[in-house]
Amino acid sequence: NAGKSGLDQWNFTMHPARAGKTQDPGGEYTRRWCPELARLPTKYLHSPWEAPEDVLRSSGVRLGPGGSYPHRVVKDISAGIRQSGDAIRAQRARSLEWNDGGGYDLIVLPRGSTVGHDGLPFRVFTKPEFRIIGGRPPGGAWAGAGE
Q1: Which of 45, 48, 78, 137 has its CA at 20 to 30 Å from residue 15's CA atom?
Q2: 90 and 145 in contact (C-beta within 8 Å)?
Q3: Contacts within 8 Å (CB) and 24+ apart, 46-55
């Protein structure tokens, strides 16, 4: 779901570097699928931009255009999180008919998939910071929603 698909697409986002460190602590997966980083010490494998220049050089890694691995795409993670949240809330605000009175997402369950809710709107979990109640998110303000 880090690719933003499925019913809980709004509710699950992984930190780009921390997720690698927790899900691939020894670096085996990353070394297999990103061989250009394979010689980096594990400490820097999931965040090569943190490696000192001499470590990059001795590992054969050059960051940036013409290099062996690109520069970081998102440099300010906190700003990226805010921008992502703003975009999610703005998109949800454009489709208020798919929100219930409590600000939760609604989906229509396909016929034959349930006993009591076939073809009817069904409430699914939505994180509090993404709920839109009465056309406004909790707290009443967000950036990037056309205000």
Answers
A1: 137
A2: yes
A3: 46/17, 46/20, 46/21, 47/17, 47/20, 47/21
